[in-house]
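Table 4 source record.
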Amino acid sequence: MEPVEAAMEADAVDAAVRHSALAVRGPLFGVAAQGRDDGPRWRVVVEVTHGCPQQARDGLNSLLWFRAKDDAKSPAERRALLAGVARLENEYVDELTVLDTRYRVVRAEEYAAIDAHGDIETPRPTDPEPLAPDWSPGAGARSPRVDDGLVLDPDAPLSPLQAAERPSLRSLTYTGTRFPDSVLHDSVRALETHPDVLLLPPAFLIVERSGTEPWTPGSGLQATAHDARRTLAFALTWLEPRQRGLIPYDAEREVDAHTVVAENTSPAVGELAVFAEAAERLRAGRLNQVEVHGTVSRIARSRRLLRWGPDGPEGPRPSDINTHAPQVLHPRLDDHGTVHFEQPADDEAAS
């Protein structure tokens, strides 16, 4: 075993001792693709971070539409891509084939490790961190995306700890009276239809709580702990002051807790200084937890488990809920790649 792999393995063992219980948050959805020459492997093409199947379908809709607009090499290829878009605009499609590539909406369970006190695991020392953290505006656009380039390979080699962990997670199901019977039934059925599991790379998010309240999510998933810290720093200095009325919502975009404190003319300087100081602590020390005005914000390490069956990754279950219906997301595109913006009907234009 290479030194880096050995360090990660030892880190994982230490984490398993400190955080020996699991808290399941619920399902996440994305899209995976399988080409003719991929064998049993699937490639994630829409990150597995979405809260319902339809959000993942919308991601696939956009992926195919932009591919038709920018990458199609012929009118026939563009028509095939747009035929897939048309289905996604009108149907709850969980799988379709376009140009010899299978696309499937896939489902993963999001969970976190917790300790004896119910505290959620924070980033591990061996989790990826940038050598020179970028805190500048717009850095998020340059950061890696969750699941970028991820290949789902059921035959990939495992570390000793992964080889021990995967079998222990195969029996993971929903239990308890807070779940509807249909959810419990589908959870048990998945053990038969998709008996194996794949563990996706860790992701990171902000969780928050006040007093003895339970932890609640404060952000979406990020690819690195630094991305989550930068999101938290932005929330502390820009978003939270506006939500609390300490900075007007219509203030210039560059106005934040730092700039207002530096000017020292606002009556809210004292409260804003607390936010600014917390953000500075995050920047200076790679902290994973800060407390501001009674609310504790923590960088949490999220884990995801994807069930696997004879035909690959599990798709949405009958009991999974869609928050919205299929819809048209983009303008009409013709066979030659020209975008057509539809004009409103006469009665709509006059109203």
